[in-house]
Design goal:
Its EC number is 3.7.1.5, 4.1.1.112, 5.3.2.2. This protein has about 220 residues and is mainly beta. The chain contains four helices and 16 strands. The structure holds ligand LYAYVSCA and magnesium ion (MG).
């Protein structure tokens, strides 16, 4: 009686944990935005208030006129740790999720030109649409996962995690050297090329080949 219900990792987005994002992890995307190919992972954070689930809309912040989609594989941490060895990294993974890293590109460009952090461009409410939890067993080889995204039925992004510059074990090890990973954290592993602007009333559909699809509506935030 009165015992707290056990938390279920399959609803990790309700746990209030960190969302750690990797940028420029696909050479074709780094090139399309005219960035150099990184020699070390580029990292930024989203707060847990960024999560949005199917059935609720992605809200376009009032301050942007160029909101971009970025489809990404998310890695859900099942066992926390600090200074995790690459050889042990996959033991810390509980599963995966399909994610969008919604990005106010005009604001990001402004922040970049002023040398300011990307928080306003990347961390706003609903900036992290997320699918159902995918148990680890359902993706035996996360280095060969095909991702795609359509806007109003038109294919915009199609890529494979084999194109990632830094692998999932490398990222887990690298991040955990200076940010302790906790159960329920999510790592967004970067986006392939094809990012583009979305508009009010657009429908975004994204998928992991043979595993799942998800659909989100876009709505401009109201005053
Ligand atoms: O450097 C830029 O102009 C943009 C970088 C990103 O938005 C990075 C990502 O979030 C990504 O590559 O997934
Ligand atoms: Mg991204």
């Amino acid at each position: 009686m009165g015992a707290m219900a056990a938390r279920n990792i399959s609803r990790f987005w309700e746990w209030g944990r960190k969302i750690i994002c990797v940028g420029r992890n696909y050479a074709d995307h780094a090139k399309e935005l005219k960035n150099a190919i990184p020699t070390e992972p580029v990292l930024f954070l989203k707060p847990p208030t960024a999560y949005v689930r199917e059935g609720s809309p992605i809200l376009v912040p009032l301050y942007t006129s160029n909101l971009h989609h970025e489809v990404e594989l998310g890695v859900v941490i099942g066992k926390g740790g600090t200074s995790i060895l690459q050889s042990d990294a996959m033991d810390h993974v509980a599963g995966y999720a399909l994610c969008l890293d919604m990005t106010a590109r005009d604001i990001q460009d402004e922040c970049k030109s002023k040398g300011l952090p990307w928080t306003m461009a990347k961390a706003f409410n609903t900036s992290c649409p997320v699918s159902e939890f995918i148990p680890k067993e359902n993706i035996p080889d996360p280095s060969k996962v095909k991702l795609w995204l359509k806007v109003n039925d038109q294919l915009r992004q199609s890529g494979c995690t084999s194109q990632m510059i830094f692998s999932i074990p490398y990222l887990i090890s690298y991040i955990s050297d200076f940010i302790t990973l906790e159960e329920g954290d999510l790592i967004l592993t970067g986006t392939p090329k094809g990012v583009s602007a979305v508009q009010d009333h657009d429908e975004l559909q994204a998928g992991i080949e043979d595993i799942l699809t998800m659909t989100f509506k876009v709505n401009r935030q109201e005053l």
